[in-house]
Structure formats: structure tokens, C-alpha cells
Amino acid sequence: MEIAHPGKVTYVSLSADDPATNAAFDQAIAEVRGRLGRTWPLIINGQERSTSTTFDSVSPGDTRIVVARVPRAAPDDVSDAVVAARAAFPTWSRTPWPERAARLEKAAQIIRARRFELAAWMILEMGKNRIEALGEIEETADLIDYYNQQMRANQGYVRPMDRLVPTDNNTSVLRPYGVWAVIAPWNFPYALLGAPVAAALLTGNTVVMKPSSETPLSAILLAQIFGEAGLPAGTVNCLTGSGSVVGDGLSRHPGVDGITFTGSLDVGFNQIYRQFSTRFPKPSIVEMGGKNPAIVMESADLDRAALGIFRSAFGMNGHKCSACSRLYVHEAVADELLARLDQQIAKAKIGDPLLKDTFVGPVATRAGYHDYQRFVETAGAAVRTGGHILTAGALAHGYFVAPTVLVGLPRDHQLMHDELFVPILAVQRVKTLDEALAEANDTAFGLTAGVFTRKQDEIDTFLERIEAGVVYVNRAAGATTGAWPGVQPFGGWKGSGSTGKNIGGLYTLPCYMREQSRTVCE
Ligand code: NAP
Ligand code: MG
Q: Are residues 303 and 198 in the same domain?
């Protein structure tokens, strides 16, 4: 099997420390700094629109920096965007898919060409480090290319079928639904907006998109790029604004035919999934959180395990839906593993995410910063490592915190079950793989999981019994994190996802279409 992405910065890259990359980053950061704080528009039917009220996207590394001033869309803007998308649907859905694919390929090219600039905006807006940001921009472009490749490989999902009589011509055709709403989270603001938008467009739907209010600029820049790539007016509409007005408005709108939401279980399941279908069932792709376990058995390579767990628990400050947040370690190796984990944490460079050597920047949101402090207080004596905010020197104006390890919480403690989404890892000692698996599966979520063991029978048991959509065995690059389109399709079971099919995978595009079985008699 060939290596799919030699040399590219992905989520398994340890550093992007070559002089050309650093120079390109430095230049992009300087340029972006010169454009901070400007006011941006909504994009409806190919037109820019301003609103009577705006809100500020603030940099979590230094909250004195206003990254962008963005429009707060009102209910009328939501309606106008849906009307524009409906009007664009007949022509776009009849446009042959190779032509749709060509425009999306162009969008991917623009994204790749502007990767340093987009990465710089992202670092300022939500605080991930240079490699993570560059990796995400590459992933966004790769997701689009992968979907194009899947469309080609499946011949546009038009397939001849068998016949019962010689004069019947039977075909299975997958066709678009209509207007697709895409609602995105702040942790992967480009990939988790750009990819579902591209999947919806490629399959012939038209789109209204809404970013998280923590990262609104991502959507505006992507919408502009789709426009520049030749997507016709009305096919991609962009609304910034609150979850309660824009997000809820889209998910209740009768003119929206399908929805992709990525975010929390509470909003995704309790609100959107339950309320989206009204007159009849409508497709609802809802990707939600995780409480992802790593299991370390007695025979494991402990250096590998410590590195993989460190990267997955604390990389991007625990802000990945795939972050490792629970560790079940065999009691015979627990002390040794925890010592190695502490060594990894002690080496981690925490600081300004714009600097090239930073491992983690700030917690991305004010709410997360407060959550972290509340969780640590709740954990009390279980805090083994970390457990405090960082305010010295250059960190004084941002949401910086120490990577934190909790040991010995009661197993039914809320911190063992709720998704925390900040750099906190909770550790339990176990005696057997059976016990570890029972605990690992005792959760509403089922997104990712990892195991470290040298025993083949334990690997087989783990793979057979773990309840998760993405699983890793003995992976130093990330015990539970670091998926890539076309390499590790990404999605969750149980409370982590609604379709049972992963994104960036073989079965993603059919989720955006409905089947029509055609019999044409001669
Ligand atoms: P969130 O609070 O659920 O928000 C997600 C999006 O929904 C935002 O755009 C938000 O807008 C919007 N929203 C809020 N209330 C809404 C409502 N009533 N109706 C419709 N939309 C509404 O999640 P988040 O904090 O942004 O993201 C973190 C979560 O995403 C974590 O749970 C993480 O695990 C999950 N996630 C999952 C995956 C995956 O692939 N499974 C990937 C990444 C992240 P506002 O920002 O304006 O409120
Ligand atoms: Mg922000």
C-alpha cells in the first residue's frame, strides 16, 4: 500500500519546522495582523449584506485583539438565504456532476494556495498551533478532493441494475434533496464547515451555512472562496449569528431539506435531531462529542503509549472531539505510565500559538476557560498533574491553562462521563481487559478509542468489543486522534453520530442523496 500523503503537514506531523514553511507563516501572520478588526458581511444569493448589529470575534490568546467584526443575522436573513438556496437548486442540481466537481476542485486549489493565510486567521481566531492549523487547511482541501474522487469512482452514483424482462431498463440513481443547512463547531472551523458544504454541493444540493460564533470569520472566508471558484449565486449562502436565531432558525425552517450539524450532544441530539423532521422524515447528519478512552495493558510499549496518550489528551488543548479523555491502565504498569506521561507534559511548550515552537496555545473559548477551572475544583484531591490556570508574563491576557491529569475519581463521577473538551485526562487503574472494555463502553458516546498491548488476542478482543466509530491500536502519533480523509474515515456510534457512516469515507456522499430506482420500458 502506498503512503497517501508524503511530506504533507497532517495531524500526525510532529513538526513543520522547515525554513520555507516558517517564512511563509511569518509573512501570512504579518499580513493578517494588518487586517484585524475589520467588518465583514453576510453572503446571501452571491451578494454581500451588512446587518444592523455585529459581534466581535476575539482572540483567545490575547482577548484585547478583535480578529473580526461580523454580522449578526436576523430571522429575515435566514429566510432570505433559504429562499436564495431554493431558487438556485433547480439549475445547480441539473448541472452535470463533473462540472460541479470541477468548481469544487478549484475551491480546493484556492484553499491550498491560501493555506498559510487561512491558517493564520484560524490561529488568531481560536488559538490552535501552527501545525494543527496548517494540517486542518490541508485536510479541508483533501476532503473536497476525496469527495470528488468518490463521485468519480462511483460514476456519479448512477448504476445500471438487473432486469426481469428484456425490455425493461433499470437504473439506480442517487439524487440531491434540495437545500442543505450546514452548522459547524469552532474546533475545526474550516474542515467541518468546508467539507460538508462541499459534499452537499457536489451531490447537487445548495447550501446555507452557519459557523460557530467563536469562529465566524472561517465561514465568511470559505464562502468567498466558493464564490471565487465559480459556485453560482445562491448555491452557497453564509450566515453568521447566534445558535438560537440562525442555527435554530435553519433547523426549524420548512424550506431546509437536509442538515449537517457538528457540535455538542445537547444541541445536536436534544435539539436539532429531534426537531428537524416535522411533516416527514428529513436527512439529519448529526456529528457530536466523545468521551474517548485509551486502554493500556500490561504488555504495552509504555513509551509509545505515553506519547500517543499525551498527544491525544493534550494536543489542541483537548479540543478535539476525538481527544483522549479517559485512560484505563493495567495496575501493574500504571505508575510507570503516569510517570512517563508527566515527563511528556513537563516538556510541552504552552504559549502564543502564533510562535513556531508552541505545542498548545490558549483554551479556545471563554466558556472553556471557566469550565476548566470548575472541573478542576470539582475534581479536588484527584488532581495529580496541572490543575491551574497560567497567567504569567505573556499569558496574562489569554485563556491559558496547565494540562491536567486526574487519578482515582469515583467511576460514577460526572467528570468520568461528561465530555469536558479541555485538557483534562481522567485515569483509572484496571485489572483486566474485560474490566477496561466494560468501563470504556460505559458511556453515551462512541467516537474514538485506542489500545496499547503487545498481545494479539487482546488486540482482537478490543477490536471486536469496543463501541466506537474510529479505533487505533498501538498508535504513538495519537492514541485516539489524528484521522485523515480517505485514510481513517471519521465518525461516531451511539451519542456521537446519527448516520453510522463516517465523514471523509466511502459512504459519506450517499448520505447527501436519496435513491430513485428507475424502470424505463422499451
Ligand atoms: P455547540 O455548542 O453544540 O455548537 C455547535 C454549533 O451549533 C455552533 O455553530 C452553534 O452556534 C450552533 N448552535 C448552538 N445552539 C444551537 C441551536 N439551538 N440550534 C442550532 N444550532 C445551534 O458545539 P461547539 O462548542 O461549537 O463544538 C464543540 C462540540 O463539537 C463538542 O461536543 C465536540 O465533541 C463536537 N465535535 C464533534 C465532531 C465530530 O465529528 N463528531 C467534530 C468536532 C466537534 P453558536 O456558536 O452561535 O452558539
Ligand atoms: Mg474567538
A: no
